[in-house]
Specification:
The protein is an all-alpha fold. The N terminus and C terminus are likely disordered. It is built from 15 helices and no strands. Helices cover 81% and strands 0% of the residues. The two termini are 20 Å apart. It is globular. It has a single domain, classed as Growth Hormone, Chain: A.
């Protein structure tokens, strides 16, 4: 069994958990720069809309291609070596992406596949360590509150930081703003030295053994299979989030506008998840899930039929409300399923499999977007949006099925008990 922290009873362990949480919050700031605002920056470097869509799609596809290749490798390394140093290595590689932006930011579209590859490598290393540490350090009782608070804080960061970052990029350059982000990288690495973890006795990484143990526990195996299907479908939602950024840049054309909209809808997301957490109970929120499945589809189809500023805002709103509920509940259930069964020592294998399924669907969706961009037809792009939004509906319905079938308590999630 893995070494497990209990943040409710141990002062030292709580300190490590706070450092882990702080590092991840700072990581979200860095990701805003190398993801959201890189997408915005590429717009200014592209000759036309279709080159822009192609470059962004290549960037995202290369990122997830390298995640697919490297996640199993670093999952194995995490179990064989010091997980905190692997976690820290992910931050260092991400710092490399920022340094690359300092020197090559104004020519970054020429190296778009390479930048995506480095970013994907950083994420593969970082999340191999982070997902394992989070499960070992956060108690079974606290996993839901940790997930909700993490999501709320992530979106809180997106209220202030995007406006500042977008304004700075518009009045200076992407490369100059990268220098400020580099300081954030240094602070994050500093915080990481406060994270303490112990490698479990007899720790190993064996996917074959992992699935054998799941088969010995049929109920858990059924639950895990549903969550893997959910992860695969959930991966297709990433192209929706990226497409919204593309549409904002096409209609507004400035980093500040993208930052302002990101901030505004982050407020909507925070309010949504806090209300959801406070006023809904598992087994009694069917109508919430159904609304979350229908709303983004309706808003997207309205935008695709009439692609104007007002419909783009509606599109963003519908997706923001649905996404925060969907992503939080997926995070809660993916993190809690093995702990419910007492399978603590298989956490790394479980998280690696989830990342593999997520990466596969993301590669498929962004690869499709690359091909569609070559057709030079915006109508086809909007048709792609109208189809890809169905991934939101499918993921939400699967989560509803999972909750109603396996989460028996009406007080709240099993993982809280």
């Amino acid at each position: 069994m893995s070494y497990t922290y209990d943040i409710n009873t141990s002062k030292q362990d709580k300190r490590s958990s706070v450092c882990l949480f702080s590092c991840h919050t700072l990581y979200n700031i860095i990701v805003l720069f190398v993801s959201t605002f890189l997408v915005a920056h590429v717009y200014s470097l592209s000759d036309n809309v279709f080159d822009y869509i192609k470059n962004v799609a290549i960037y995202e596809m290369s990122q997830y291609l390298f995640m697919l290749i490297l996640c199993p490798l670093f999952g194995w390394i995490v179990e064989k070596t010091n997980r905190t140093w692997i976690y820290r290595l992910g931050m260092i590689v991400m710092t490399g992406v920022v340094i690359f932006a300092i020197f090559y930011g104004e020519q970054i579209s020429k190296y778009i596949f390479l930048v995506g590859a480095i970013y994907g490598t950083a994420n593969a290393i970082y999340y191999s360590g982070y997902n394992t540490l989070k499960h070992e350090m956060v108690s079974r009782k606290s996993i839901k509150s940790f997930a909700v608070f993490s999501q709320a804080t992530s979106y809180a960061v997106k209220i202030v930081v995007p406006i500042i970052m977008g304004a700075l990029i518009d009045v200076s350059t992407y490369s100059q703003v990268a220098i400020y982000v580099l300081i954030v990288c240094a602070i994050q690495i500093g915080f990481s030295f406060g994270v303490r973890a112990k490698r479990p006795d007899n720790s190993s990484f064996n996917l074959k053994s992992y699935f054998q143990k799941l088969k010995e526990n049929p109920e858990t195996f059924k639950k895990v299979k549903i969550l893997y299907w959910c992860a695969f479908i959930y991966g297709f939602t990433t192209v929706v989030s990226t497409s919204i950024k593309i549409c904002v840049m096409i209609h507004f054309g400035s980093s500040f506008s993208l930052g302002a909209m990101t901030s505004a809808f982050s407020i909507v997301s925070i309010v949504t998840i806090l209300l959801f957490n406070k006023f809904t109970k598992s087994g009694k929120r069917k109508w919430i899930y159904i609304l979350s499945a229908i709303l983004p589809a309706i808003c997207t189809w309205i935008f695709c039929i009439s692609p104007q500023v007002w419909s783009l805002i509606l599109y963003y709103l519908g997706v923001a409300v649905s996404k925060i509920i969907m992503s939080t509940m997926f995070d809660v259930y993916r993190n809690g399923v093995l702990k419910e069964a007492g399978l603590y020592s298989e956490i790394t294998e479980h998280q690696t499999m989830l990342e593999i399924f997520l990466a596969i669907s993301r590669i498929i969706s962004f690869g499709s977007l690359v091909l569609l961009s070559l057709l030079n037809n915006l109508t086809i792009f909007y048709i792609f949006l109208s189809i890809s939004i169905l991934s939101y509906s499918a993921t939400t319905i699967l989560l509803l099925y999972y909750e109603n079938k396996y989460i028996k308590t009406n007080n709240d999630l099993n993982v809280d008990n």
